[in-house]
Amino acid sequence: MQLHSGLVVFLCFGGFVHPQTPADLSRLLVTIFDGYNNRIRPIQNQTEPILLDISMYLFSINEVDEVDKKLVTTGYLEVRWTDGLLKWDPNLWNRTVYLTVPQDSIWKPDLVLKNGFTRFEEMGESFNYVFLANDGSVIWKPYEVFETRCSIDITYFPYDTQVHLSSSCRQSNYDCITGKTTKIFPDSSLVLSWLSAV
């Protein structure tokens, strides 16, 4: 009797499983990218801005150069937006609700580090992937070693306190509205303190 109960339960749950195969995903990619151009802003009304949500995650402080007023940090941005041209019905695609695709295959904002130490620099590398959901939601996480300018006052060194406003990015072609948050430092400042034994 126990064997039959187990078999019935297996058959009931087995009817709800719809695994995605590589062939399913390949067909979905071909379908949603048919006619897609990553050089066109992904919104039906091209006069409207695209809303960006940008968060910064700091991993480490690599270098603080008091003389050159340079701060080197490692971290990544999490940038979210909706690509209105890349949507699909998951019920038609074996319940596939998300994909990961190379970042260069879709439109992404051309963010640059505004307070870079030596030059403006585009975010992200070509080998990064983005997360794409069936409702068009995109999550892009370009990670970087950030070299930024940082005003440092060493008047009271080694008992000084330094405040560095978080690195700022800008959307260089002015077609996006950004909401910025810093996940580690909610007041958008980082206080560096050094203590030294005399």
Could you list some keywords that capture this structure?
mainly beta; 198 residues; Neur_channel; disordered C terminus; receptor; 11 strands; single chain; Neur_chan_lig-bd_sf
Which helices and strands, and how do they pair?
Layout: H1 2-14, H2 22-33, E1 50-65, E2 70-82, E3 98-102, E4 111-113, E5 129-133, E6 137-140, E7 143-149, E8 161-165, E9 169-171, E10 176-182, E11 189-193
Parallel strand pairs: 1-10
Antiparallel strand pairs: 1-2, 2-6, 2-7, 3-5, 4-9, 5-6, 8-11
Gross morphology is elongated
Unreliable parts: 5-17, 165-172, 180-198
Helix content class: 10-25%
What is the overall pLDDT average?
75
User: What is the CATH first-level class name?
Assistant: Mainly Beta
Beta-strand content estimate: 35-45%
Briefly note the structural class of the backbone. Answer: mainly beta
Q: Please, how many helices?
A: 2
How much is the radius of gyration in Å?
A: 23 Å
CATH homologous superfamily caption: Neurotransmitter-gated ion-channel ligand-binding domain
CATH topological fold name: Acetylcholine Binding Protein, Chain: A
Helix/strand order, N-terminal first = HHEEEEEEEEEEE
Distance between the termini: 80 Å
Number-wise, the strands total 11
Number of domains: 1
CATH architecture: Distorted Sandwich
Main sheet summary? 7 strands, mixed
Organism: Magallana gigas (Pacific oyster)
Protein name: Neuronal acetylcholine receptor subunit alpha-6
InterPro entries: Neur_chan_lig-bd, Neur_chan_lig-bd_sf, Neur_channel
GO molecular function, one term: extracellular ligand-gated monoatomic ion channel activity
